[in-house]
Amino acid sequence: MKIGAITVGQSPRTDVTADIMGIFEGKAELSEKGGLDGLTIEEIRKFKPEEGDYVLVSRLNDGSSVTFAERFILPRLQTAIHELEAEGAELIMMFCTGKFPDTLKSSVPLIYPCDILDRMVPLFSPNSSIIVVTPSPKQLKQSLDKWSQIVTDVNVISASPYGAWEEIIKAAEQIKGLNADVIVLDCIGYSQEMKKVFAGETKKPVILPRTLLARMISELTDR
Predict the structure, then answer these.
(1) What is the pLDDT of residues 165-206, one digit of tens each?
(2) DSSP at 200
(3) What predicted TM-score, i.e. pTM, was given to this entire model?
(4) Complete domains list, the chain, with CATH
(5) E runs forming strands in the chain
């Protein structure tokens, strides 16, 4: 099955595919595009978020991360969709848990991790209480605003999946003392190893978007 993947950063996302391609058991051929592909760091810096912008954080090819406003890359994402369609993608998955406007159009199924998370997280939270981990302090309010519409009790902390490992460990230790049904690592950048750190430190269930996305799509590749 030909599957397209779009990152809001730069492709290929080898950090993500390292965790998910095994889930497809060789039944999927993946083609990737990125919203920041072909841009220099100087050009990307011009996408700096301003007050009221929807903030995204993603990875560049050199392994570093950038923070930028969603509005700057929407036309580039639409171009990426068209390119993947032209290459024969039967569906396209978004390598980002952010929320995107319905102005993005695709002739094949366009799968957003946020849509999966929005529906599944409440099912795993009988007390409607969750802890959300988001990459940047600039995303704390937008994350709280979003999840407060879905569950009753939300704690949001920031810890970048693209920074020092100590930041992940510190966040896990911070969460350890908080009450919640489940932890949501709300970025495609969080890895299986990071999930293990949060689960081991807190003894709470942890939802990892990249593998959740791949496991759902793998149902369609088994044919």
Answers:
(1) 999 999 999 999 899 999 999 999 999 999 999 999 999 999
(2) H
(3) 0.95
(4) 2-112+211-219 (3.40.50), 115-208 (3.40.50.1860)
(5) 2-7, 29-34, 55-59, 65-69, 91-95, 110-111, 129-134, 153-158, 182-185, 206-207
Which residues, at least 6 apart from 211, have a Cβ–Cβ distance to it below 8 Å?
19, 20, 23, 192
Strand partners, 92: 4, 110
pLDDT digits (tens, 9 = 90+) for 96-150: 999 999 999 999 999 999 999 999 999 999 999 999 999 999 999 999 999 999 9
The token duo for 32 is: 């990737």
Judge whether 2 and 87 are in contact, CB under 8 Å: yes
Q: Using CA atoms, how far apart are residues 73 and 221, in angstroms rounded to an integer?
A: 30
Please say whether the beta carbons of 134 and 143 come within 8 A. yes
The sign of the CA dihedral 78, 68, 62, 112 is negative
User: From residue 60, how far is each of 84, 90, 130, 167, 220 by CA, in Å?
Assistant: 20, 26, 30, 19, 30
